[in-house]
Every structure is written in C-alpha cells, then in structure tokens.
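Re: How this chain folds, sequence and tokenised backbone to follow

Filed under: protein folding, tokenised backbone structure, sequence and structure records.

Contents: The amino acid chain and a row of whole-number tokens, matched residue for residue.

Body of memo: The sequence and its backbone structure tokens, given next.
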Amino acid sequence: MDARDLIENLKADLTCSICLGYFTDPVIVKCGHNFCRVCLLRCREEADAAFKCPECRRVIEDSDVVPNRKLENLCTTGKRLRPHLLESMVDLYVCDQHGEEEKLFCEEDQKLLCASCVLAPGHKDHTVLPLEMAAHKCKDKIKHTLNTLQRKKEEFNAALDRVRRKEEQCMNDIHSLNESVTLEYRKLREFLCEEEELYRQRLDQQYTDNMAKLEHNKVKLSQQIQNLEKMKIELEENLDKEPLEMLQDMKDTLARNKELLLQEPEVASFAWVTRSITGLTKMLKRFQRDISFDPKSANPHLILSEDLKSVKYGDVPQDLPDNKERFDVALAVLGAQTFTSGKHYWEVKVGNKTELVVGVCKDSIRRKGRHSSLSEDFWILVSFKLCNDCFLWNSRDGFFMSQPLKKVGIFLDYDKRHVAFYDAINGSSICSFSDMAFEGPIRPYFSFCSGKGKITLK
C-alpha cells in the first residue's frame, strides 16, 4: 500500500459515518462505534422507538455514550497534518518500472506515467497530459459538475416547493369537494323526501277516490237490495189476496218493477296507479346479475333456448331424463345461479298472454309433485288474467289489479333477508317481502300459470 492510500485510510478512520466529515466532539458507544455527539443526538431525536446504533443497530442507553478525547485529539492532528503530507508527496511520484519521475497522466487508464511509460504499446493511442494540465482539466470538470449539481439542486428544490403547494392545494380541494358532496347529497335527500311525500299524497288521494267509489257502489247495491226486498214483500202480500185482485195487482206490480228485475249487480273495480321512483332503476342496475336457466331443473314441457336465456311452453313433453333436480308436475325451471350472500338483481321479459310466476326459492325446494302457492320454500309474484283484467298475487298482500306487466325486476338482498319486485318498464315498485326465513342457498324461480307464453331473461 503506497503512502497516498495510507493517508486516505487514516482520513476514513477519522470520519464520522453520519456526517461524513472529521469527528467533532466524538463519543464512543458500548458497541465500539464512534460518532460526532451532535450527529448521534440528531439520530436519537428522529428515532420513533428504542434508540439504536446507526452502525450495528444495537440498542443504546444513555450510560453507553462516553466522550472519546483521544479520538478528538487524533482528529485535530490528522486534519492539520493531511495537507502537508499530500503536499510533501508531490515529489515522491517515481515509476517503479523505469525509476523515472511520473510527471504525466493517462486519462484512459487514470494513472501517472513517466516518459518511458508513454512509449509503451499499451498507451500508444491514449490521451496523455502533463500532470498539472490534467489536474487543471480535472478541476474544470469538477467545477462544471458542481455547477450542474447546484442547478439540479435548485431544480429539485423548486420541484419540492411545487409539491408542497400542490399538497396544500390538495388539502383545500378535499375540504371543498367534501362540502360540495355533502350539500349535493343533502339536496338529493331533500328532493327524495319531498318526492316520497308527494307519492304518498297521491296514493292517499287514490285511496280516498277508490273508497268513495266503493262507498257509492255499496249505497247503490244497498238501495237495489231494499228495492228487491220491497218488491218481494209486495209479491208475498199478493199471495193472500182474492184471485181477481191478485191478478190485477200482480200485473201492476210487475209493470212497476220491470226495470228492477232487469238490473244486474255491479261491483266496482279499481287499479292502483304506480309511478316511477327517481334513481331506483339506476340503483338496481348496480346489482344486475347475468342469470341463465338451469336445464337440469326444467319441466319436460318447457323448451329452453340454446343460450339458456329464454323458455317457452310446449304441448308435447320432451324426452328428458327424470333426474332428481327436474320438476315433473310444476311447469317450473330454476336459475342456474345460487346466492348465499350479497345483493342481486335481474329482469324477466314477459311475452304476450304469458301468465307467469317469478321470484326466488330455496335450493332445496321439492321438485316432484305439485306445489302450494303458500309454500315456505319460495317467495313469488304471480301475474295472471281473469275476465280480461290483469291481477297480481303474492302471499303477503293477496290479489290486486294491475296493468299488464311486460318486464319484471327481481331484487334479492340475502343478508337483509329481503325480496322485492318492480315494474322494470316504468321503474316503479310492485311489492316486497322482508325478514324472510332464508336458510342455505337461494335460487331464481320461474313458472307458467298455464300452458302458454314465453319468458326471457334480460
């Protein structure tokens, strides 16, 4: 090892590993490592938990930190001595091979050369400069690099300032956006509350009108009953009269009550007019599921499309295996999907003149034999026609009149044990079930009330 390397090694031994400068007021810790006192205290202030040695990561206690006066004195001496040692070595550069003073510098090999070394083939095409010129050139390169570093540092500082300004802007933006979102949702809630109140008022008005209509119907029927009873009494009194008088009064009684005898009882009917609910369809679409029919469960009379998205009734039963999953009496088919948690929504397009049953059922539903509409194995909505009027039925509300349904939406919230049905055309609610006794997997359920029609999944 030459003298220059020894000098550099000495400097390394006198250098703090934290600030990379000569030790200042050095201290030694129990593990044997040395640091500037200020550097070590700064590391301690930044420590989140136990204070550890920056070199070996051993835990340091206050009693482990001891001043190292000998090292401090050695640093002072080394700092003063190093320039004189380097200066005294200027005349010590002698070529080991040729014994000549090394006054030239090879830029490619980054080493000192003597005049004889320059003539060697290994340095033939290299750039060789006098040592002072090479040092001056190196100094210019260092100054250029320092200027570049300074410029880069300023650029990064400017970028850091921009980041800090953006950070402040981000904090202001999130506050403003949160306020905006809060205000908008407050307005939306107020709007929905007002719409709900208006909807209830309209339903109440429909109820009032329907009740008035039914009351008028009751009064009219009661009056007709009284007229019939009066005519009945009058005819019964005629039975006890003399023949001639009976004949004369009978003709008169029948003439006066001819219109009454021709009257037929009329029962008033009504249908609830439902309206779309703002945002309902968009909300339900968030939970839309791709539902398909399960061919293994389909009754032999039900013909499924190739993509398992459509089913229609066939008069002639298909030759299908009588597996345990297949319905043999009920004109039913299940959805291929099963649900044990979460929210799910799907739609059913209803063909013309289709009388159908839609809803959900337990996966364990009985497949063989007939089903009772009051079974606890499914929760359904039934749509059918009677005397040219369309009716809906469910096990909670019973029968009620309705406009013909063209598309039905079914919503299942398994975790809240809730099932709801919607008119998917106008986005209105039909009916819903809550607190259902779900146990195990739940599946979509489809059935035909009569041997006609078509059901398509959307």
